[in-house]
Design goal:
24 strands; alpha+beta; 7-stranded antiparallel sheet; 6-stranded mixed sheet; globular; single chain; 3 domains
Length: about 900
């Protein structure tokens, strides 16, 4: 997984962004402390004041015994630190209980965690994040050298307030250092609003404190404020707060005991997808690669080790937070318990247990004692997350708090559909939330898939989307499937974006097969709705069962194995990767994530079947069908005025997705994850040239064609905005919506990655090199399709003029500025084709029979291209 850094408030927090599961771990380095956490005044200096007796400091306070006993009197809170626990590691986690409700700042989210310890320096108590990234286990001198070479990080510092208690052998520290910004949330706030908010400690406070034998928890409410809002500039103040100058954020801090007996770690294998804790081990000099990856997994042990099927000593318990709507709780529980099928195959009965948090509970499911599933709401919150906190020494998962956005009810889906409709589907609208790369988009996208499916079935007259039947048949199953996906992350599994390709296309139309086996090979894929074309047999609509890959990944992570034969058995399990139904690809393979360009057309989000290109063509046909039927239907009296508009825009969302799927075939490479010596398969296999040409035809004759996007004037003129709550402005712009999808396809086809792979293609084809699709063929095919009116001598309508400007703008930029990613041969071919286009434009510009708009467009294009060809290139 790629890593994304949030740095702020004197603290850097590393977030693993593999999709749905964000896995915060201890940072490699950080500055001393947040300003709020640094003590002020004479008490900050060792020896500046005499320490008071322990009992005098806490006179009149109430104590809660626990891992770190907590003392409270009115608004003051003290942490009792036993001297025996100094320098002893524990898990410190910070989870977000309350937030702003927009732009990535949501409640109910897991945040950072560290392996930390208290260190006393004179009369100062330092809270230190331990550096476990570099180790030399078993080599004491080298371990000492590593500790000297790589620094720990200071999270906070606070004065010691008392002398040592004579019986308790402990001292007191003021807990107010937790009213500082330990997680660096201020940086996220600034990134979201382009505006600096300061932490106001005066109006920050402790809400609750709790302590138990293995954990102490403190809930705080932090106040962030800015003295004034700028009148202009890049700032985007929050819109969800009564006053944009002020808001509160709640954190739940847990100080939790680490396992006294560390769990036996299990090595990762790249042929399967598990989240990992990684470190550099310099003790084993015989290894060429010192990096060690331990998979993240819960500690699961059989109560009866000799029984074929046994209850676990300690099951994995997921608490359903009381904020989950009652109507969805059964589906949420079913999504958790479905995973027991995989654990039963490896000898565990009831490995996962679901419990409901009581309505009157005095504890928060965000503390480190309770793995949980929570509902959350935000003005633009559309994602679900399945994060966890783990012990980086072994990879043992210690806590997980799954967050599910409220995007499944009809009202919520309507809101997000309108928001999408206000922007172009290709992403040409509002800025992406700062958090988006680090989050799983499954909940948002599956809600959009649900809407599209209900729309198609509704306009076909097969289903009324407003009926309880639709809610029961579709929404409940979608929630179950979404929870299964996120629980998979919380169990340590990454995305598998090849899971859907293991089901043959013809099987998707088989109701019996799809009901029994589902429509995908993995619930860890982003699985689309299985919609048949009109007149075809209809299989199961959605996927809410475990697939072959899910059983396999759980077996590797959790199967009880004798330590003496673990390496051999794990190698045997992983060697099954050659089985077709166990195909695997992660976020990087799928692309569009962390700067990676996906090269494998079989690794995708939201496709179905073993032929993604065929699936893309079917989705285009379904969009055309939806548009045709919605233009023919007469909206019933009393229907939501925005419904017609949403139907139109939902079709464009599918067009954009089909364009993405098809464009990955051009210059595509099918990739497998075999290790050397384990399989005769090649790691990279170029997509067959015939299939690349087929994908290019689909784009040029479908996506780039004006005929694909013809709408009746009377239909477009009858699409009102919501006059009472303006989320959309004015008429729908079909050209803008079309251009969003077309521009994304052009970006891909003219990218440096595609150019390099097409130029390299003959090297991979051997004797079939003559059949290769060349880069020149792609450039000329795209150019001829985009500018086809030049050969025909016909007028150019607005849709096509927009597309031609987008193509010409990209060509002109590359001709004048060059590109570090584009190979020299590609730049030469672009110039060669641009000269050919210039000649065509000259001939066409002299045609006085064309409309004024067309003549103006041609002259403007000719001038722009001429300047680009004459300009001196500034090569990157």
């Amino acid at each position: 997984m790629s890593m994304r850094w949030w740095a702020g408030g004197g603290l850097a927090v590393l977030l693993a962004a593999g999709g749905c599961a964000t896995h915060p771990v201890a940072p490699a380095a950080a500055s001393a402390a947040t300003p709020a956490a640094v003590p002020e005044g004479p008490a900050a200096r060792p020896g500046a004041t005499a320490l008071r007796p322990f009992d005098e400091v806490v006179r009149g306070a109430t104590v809660t015994p626990g891992f770190f006993p907590l003392w409270r009197k009115d608004e003051r809170v003290w942490i009792e630190v036993p001297l025996a626990r100094l320098e002893q590691p524990f898990l410190l986690s910070a989870n977000v209980a309350r937030s702003v409700g927009e732009r990535g700042l949501y409640a109910g989210q897991m945040d950072a965690s560290w392996v930390a310890s208290f260190r006393r320096v004179g009369q100062q108590m330092q809270l230190v994040a331990r550096n476990l990234g570099y180790r030399a286990d078993g080599n004491a001198p080298l371990q000492e050298a590593l500790e000297q070479a790589f620094s720990d990080s200071l999270l906070a510092s606070t004065p010691v307030l008392s002398t040592e208690h004579p019986e308790r052998r402990s001292v007191l520290v003021d807990a107010s250092f937790l009213l500082g910004d330990l997680p660096g949330y201020a940086t996220r706030i600034e990134a979201a609003f382009r505006l600096q908010y300061n932490l106001d400690r005066t109006n920050s406070f402790f809400e609750r404190t709790q302590a138990h034998a293995g954990m102490s928890t403190l809930a705080v409410r932090l106040h962030f404020a800015t003295p004034r809002l700028p009148a202009s500039g890049p700032a985007r103040p929050p819109v969800t707060t009564p006053d944009a100058r002020s808001f509160f954020v709640g954190f739940v801090y847990s100080f939790a005991r680490l396992p006294e007996q560390p769990m036996r770690p299990r090595r990762a294998d790249p042929r399967l997808g598990h989240f990992t804790d990684a470190h550099t081990d310099l003790a084993a000099e015989e290894r060429r690669n010192p990096r060690v990856h331990y998979i993240n997994r819960w500690r699961l042990e059989k109560r009866d080790p000799d029984a074929p099927l046994s209850e676990p000593v300690r099951p994995i318990v997921f608490w359903l937070d009381r904020n989950i709507p009652e109507r969805y709780r059964a589906a949420v529980a079913a999504g958790v318990l479905e995973w027991n099928k995989a654990f039963e195959r490896i000898g565990f009965r009831n490995a996962l247990v679901v419990r409901q948090q009581p309505a009157d509970a005095d504890w928060d499911t965000l503390d480190a004692r309770h793995a949980s599933i929570r509902w959350y709401v935000g003005a633009d919150a559309t994602y679900a997350r399945g994060p966890h906190h783990s012990d980086p020494r072994t990879g043992e998962i210690l806590d997980a708090d799954i967050a599910i956005a409220d995007v499944f009810s009809r009202s919520s889906r309507r809101f997000f559909a309108e928001e999408a409709g206000a922007r172009t589907p290709g992403g040409q609208g509002a800025a992406r939330p700062v958090h988006e790369d680090a989050q799983c988009r499954y909940a948002a996208e599956v809600a959009a898939e649900l809407d599209f499916a209900l729309d198609v079935l509704d306009v076909r007259g097969l289903l009324d989307a407003a009926t309880p039947e639709a809610e029961e048949t579709f929404v409940q199953e979608v929630i179950k499937g979404t929870v299964m996906h996120e629980v998979g992350h919380a169990l340590g599994l990454k995305h598998n974006f090849k899971g859907s390709t293991v089901v043959p296309r013809e099987r998707l139309a088989d109701p019996d097969y799809t009901r029994a086996h589902g429509i995908s090979g993995s619930v860890m894929d982003y699985n689309a709705f299985n919609l048949a074309l009109a007149g075809e047999p209809q299989g199961a609509y959605s996927h809410a069962t475990l697939g072959p890959y899910d059983y396999w990944a759980i077996e590797y992570a959790y199967k009880p194995i004798d330590p003496g034969r673990e390496a051999e058995e794990l190698a045997r399990i992983a060697a099954r990767s050659v089985e077709p139904e166990l195909a695997y690809a992660d976020d990087h393979d799928a692309g569009g994530y962390g700067g990676f360009e996906g090269i494998d057309p079989l690794a995708n989000r939201f496709d179905l079947g073993d032929d993604p290109l065929a699936y893309a063509a079917r989705r285009l046909r379904l969009s055309y069908e939806l548009w045709q039927r919605v233009q023919e239907r007469e909206p019933p009296s009393g229907e939501d005025p925005m419904r017609q508009r949403r139907l139109l825009m939902n079709g464009f969302r599918q067009v954009a997705r089909a364009a993405e799927l098809a464009s990955k075939y051009v210059g595509g490479m099918v990739q497998v994850r075999d290790l050397p010596g384990t399989s005769p398969r090649r790691t990279y296999t170029p997509v067959d040239p015939a299939r690349q040409r087929e994908a290019l035809r689909l784009l040029t004759t479908g996506l780039f064609s004006t005929d694909s996007f013809r709408f009746r004037p009377e239909f477009l003129s009858s699409l009102p905005p919501d006059y009472l709550d303006r989320r959309t402005e004015g008429p729908v712009s079909v050209p803008d919506a079309v251009l969003g999808a077309q521009a994304a396809a052009l970006d891909r086809l003219l990218s440096g990655g595609v150019a390099r792979r097409l130029l390299d293609l003959p090297n991979y084809l051997g004797e079939r090199a003559a059949q290769a699709i060349s880069l020149h063929e792609v450039y000329r095919t795209v150019q001829d399709a985009v500018w086809s009116e030049l050969r025909a001598g016909t007028d150019i309508d607005r849709l096509r003029r927009n597309l031609q400007r987008e193509h010409l703008r990209r060509v002109a930029v590359l001709l004048t500025r060059g590109s570090a990613e584009l190979p020299p041969d590609a730049l030469s071919l672009l110039r060669y084709n641009a000269v050919h286009l210039q000649a065509q434009l000259r001939r066409a510009a002299g045609n006085r029979r064309l409309s004024v708009e067309t003549q103006a467009h041609l002259q403007d294009s000719l001038a722009l291209l001429g300047e680009a060809l004459k300009a001196s290139m500034t090569r990157s």
